[in-house]
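tool_call: predict_structure(chain=1)
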Amino acid sequence: MIGATISVSNLDINVMTDGKWLEYVIGQFMDNTVKYRDVSRNLKITVFAKENEKSVDFIYEDNGQGISREDLPRIFDKSFTGDNGHNISKSTGMGLYIVKSLCDRLGHKISAESEKGEYTRFTISFAKNDMHRF
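tool_result:
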């Protein structure tokens, strides 16, 4: 039987955002983790935040199938499904497009790193400003 672990740390940092939309974004990450998991190994999800001088970075990483180097620059494009999406009938290419659109509207930066067969990591950067201080 294949299992799953979720590791969460350092999430007690305040940021300015819309909670409902952030919940949607994280839900999309989790949906993709399950959809594109590597069924031959235990699923591992790691979530944490780190504070920098100008931002707070929220990092979501999984050990799924990963995204090919060729596909990675286009994952936020509308209707792009890539190599992994061609093998999954439920792939529409809209999930990460919507995630990127939401982050843009909220004023957050989003980026992705991945290595095929190893991991995928999403980083959302929440800018610090005077509104950040409570």
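agent: The beta strands are 4-9, 43-51, 55-62, 109-115, 119-127. Proceeding to next step.
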